[in-house]
Write a structure and sequence with these properties.
- Helix content is 70%, strand content 0%.
- The chain is mainly alpha-helical.
- The chain folds into two domains: 42 residues; 45 residues, no CATH class.
- The two termini are 26 Å apart.
- The model has no long low-confidence stretch (mean pLDDT 83).
- InterPro entries: Chorismate_II_sf, CM_dom_sf, CM_II_prokaryot.
- One of its GO terms (molecular function) is chorismate mutase activity.
- This is chorismate mutase.
- Keywords: Lyase, Pyruvate.
């Protein structure tokens, strides 16, 4: 459970909320992977792919600003996510535990 900050009265409350957030991040990454896989199946126009990449990059900057995070930090996170999902998992040292 993510407890609103105003109701966090000790570090146990904060740690439990952070654990929930971390679990949701991983859950959403797995869901993102399933959507990317579906997109690959449906993809039929490489010119559209180039446009999509430009739009995603622009969207990352917008999201970073909306949530008051550094644009380069958000772009770096998404670049790492994309690198992971677009390569052989073992070629860069990523192995499932």
């Amino acid at each position: 459970m993510i407890r609103p900050l105003e109701y966090c009265v000790n570090t146990q409350h904060i740690n439990a909320s952070i654990d929930t957030i971390d679990n949701r991040i991983v859950e959403l990454l797995a869901l993102r992977k399933t959507y990317l896989n579906k997109a690959k199946v449906l993809q039929d126009d490489t010119d559209n792919e180039q446009n999509r990449i430009k739009n995603i990059s622009s969207n990352q900057a917008t999201l970073a600003k909306r949530f008051d995070l550094p644009v380069e930090f958000v772009r770096a996170i998404f670049q790492e996510i994309d690198n992971y999902f677009n390569q052989d998992y073992t070629t860069r040292g990523y192995e499932q535990q």
